[in-house]
Design a protein that fits this description.
Elements lengths: L1 H150 L1
Amino acid sequence: MLFLKCYSNSHSGEVQNSLKQGHFSYQLSVISYQLSVISYQLSVISYQLLVISYQLSVISYQLSVISYQLSVISYQLSVISYQLSVISYQLSVISYQLSVISYQLSVISYQLSVISYQLSVISYQLSVISYQLLVISYQLSVISYQLSVISY
């Protein structure tokens, strides 16, 4: 009996140890599974973050291209603005030159009007002289006639 009791106690201790080891192994397998699930989820998240990073790099590249195109457009507009300012300056110079020419032509027109007035005065004086010469010629013809009558 004592042998059976000792054997029974010894066998039950081994069973308990085996059960404990099996429970511990099960817990370790559960933890390992949970860790593998977490690792998979982290790999999925890492892949998603990689995709997002790639998309952001593509967007950044597109924005840099747009920024470059806008800078080119801005440069072209500045060149056009400069050319327009040069044209505006040239037009202002031409306008000034035309105003000077217009002033000179007005001065010439005034001088020609003065000359025309002087010529009209001279023409009037010449007409007066011509009339006086005509009167003198008439008087001389009268005198000549009277002398011819007297001579006859």
